[in-house]
Amino acid sequence: MGWKWISNYSISCTGDVTGKILLNFAVSNSFTQFVNFPTRSDNVLDLVFASDECVINRVLPSPPLGHSDHCIVDFNVILKHTNHFVVADDKTAKKRFNWYIIGTSLLL
Asked: What is the pTM of this model?
């Protein structure tokens, strides 16, 4: 399966039925495919998909690893990390503690 860019917004898939199913799935579910350079010979065979264009950046080719005939696709995944701790009140929080495990741990 090889992917070819017809323009900035249009891609096509050459090859087997599986590749065409993958292309159809990606397009119908609004996925973005980020690899726009050949990864083996003149073909784009290694792909990176995401449903949000903002979570992947800096997609670049790197030299093959070992004796591989595919280049490495190097990219960053941007994640937003949030902590959401909600404690209703002290009584509710204390009920959630496992006092047996806490006590046992303190004795060790």
From this structure: 0.61
